[in-house]
Amino acid sequence: MLVEDSFSGSAESRSLIQQMSQSLGLLRVAFDSTGEAMLIVDESSAVRWANQQAADLWGGGITLQMVGRPLSALLQFYHLDRSPLGDDEPSHPLQKALSGEGRNSYLIQALSTPANDLEKSGLIRRSVSWRLIIQMNQSFILLIFRDLDPLEKALARQRQFIDNLAHELRTPIAIITGNLHRLKRKEQFSDNIRQSLSDATAETHRMATLVDNLLLLSELDTDYRRWKLQIDDLRTFVDHWAAKLSFDLRGCLQVNVANEAVDYQVQVDRDAFHLILDNLLDNSCRFSSSKPSIQILLIQSKSFIELQFIDDGPGLQNEEQCAAVFDRFTRIEDHRNADMTDGGGLGLPLVKSLMEGMGGSASCSSPQSPANSGCHGLVVTLRFPRPRLSAGVTNSA
Fold first, then answer.
1. How far apart are CA 47 and CA 38, in angstroms?
2. N or C: at which end does the chain have fewer Cβ atoms within 10 angstroms?
3. Would you state the torsion angle of the CA atoms of residues 92, 97, 102, 106, taken in this order, to the nearest 10 degrees?
């Protein structure tokens, strides 16, 4: 009886193994038959799995030749302006995957090509998507490569058009601005004409800001921005920004730290960070009926450093509005101020794009106070991942 049970168990085990083998084989066929090249990379950036499409492109047609090799030994990523993309840069797919799944376009060159044919292989533009996978306490990154579809090519042409248009508009706007300033210095004009000149100057400034923001967003969308990352305490970056403000604006600002004793090290581009805070401050001033009161609160968690930018403005009514303010050219009609020139609807979208470009994120909320209290306010939360020291990042000190 025991022998029969043992034999039966062994047969059942063999059947299960055979079924698993068949399932894995069918799964492999499914992955190999797709038109997309797929790679799974482990925490050390070594390739752990590749489908046949990836092997045909970068492994000489043999998947086993790719397994165990560093991704950097197989592929070189390039920015769309043809400059090399370092493995430690925040716009590299392996770095962006640490913050969440996404997709972008890159120029890619196969390093598996023989050295004498490397220059002939050229750079091929591909759409790359990434996703972080956690299995059995290990982290892996799934990379999927595919050719650009017609819609993506059309979007790329549209972004290039916006980029060219923004560059072309800068010169005439600068000329108009200069002439308006010269006219305003004339003393013979009446008050009505002076008011008209002031209005024209304000609108020209708004147009110049809109063009600059469009150009920057185009650079971020197409990965043309060159990041200069530094590692330092977030309090230091905030202090540098606040020191450049006027006396009146500094008086509106209060910086609080949840725990002075803890480490607030972050990895940011200082110019981009200052631009983020400039846009948040401008947004708070624009929608405040009087002199704004702004609090910057720094909070530390296990994986992130958070900066909360809190004002005392009208706030937002619901989660739908909180999501909508990060959409380009969106304005909340209830908050439009007749005493100020309208913004371009690009301030908060630019904040979000800059944060994502540095590997972080931006969100907002509007905690509602008790009814009829008249106190609402907007809380914009900037979340920075804790930095990983690498050769590609400098310490600002």
1. 10
2. N
3. 20
Per-residue exposure over 158-176, b if at least 16 CB sit within 10 Å of its own CB, e if not? ebeebbeebeebeeebeeb
Q: Is residue 22 part of a domain?
A: no
Structure pTM?
Answer: 0.67
Collapsing DSSP to helix, strand or coil, 108 comes out as: strand
Q: Which two tokens stand for residue 66?
A: 């790719």
The phi and psi torsions of 205 (rounded to 5 degrees) equal -65, -40
The number of domains in the chain is 3
**Could you list the pLDDT tens digit for every one of the 397 residues in the chain?**
444 454 455 777 776 767 666 665 555 555 555 678 989 999 899 999 898 889 888 888 888 889 999 999 999 999 877 888 888 887 889 988 887 788 888 889 988 655 444 444 578 888 899 998 887 778 899 999 988 777 767 777 777 787 778 778 888 888 998 888 888 887 777 888 888 888 888 888 888 888 888 888 887 877 677 788 888 999 999 999 999 999 888 888 999 887 877 788 998 999 999 999 999 998 888 877 677 889 999 998 877 899 999 998 887 877 888 888 888 877 766 555 555 555 667 889 999 999 988 888 999 987 754 444 444 688 999 999 877 654 344 555 4
d(CA 268, CA 234): 9
- Residue 1 resides in a domain: no
Instruction: Give the chain's count of helices (H) and strands (E).
Output: 12, 14
Q: Are residues 379 and 234 both part of a single domain?
A: yes
Judge if 332 and 374 occupy the same domain: yes
Angle at 348 between CA 345 and CA 352, to 5 degrees: 135
Q: Are 386 and 303 within 8 A, CB to CB?
A: yes
User: Distance between CA atoms of 184 and 198, rounded to whole angstroms?
Assistant: 8
Domain range spanning residue 197? 151-221
Residue 366: other Cβ atoms inside 10 A: 19
CB atoms within 10 A of CB 103: 14
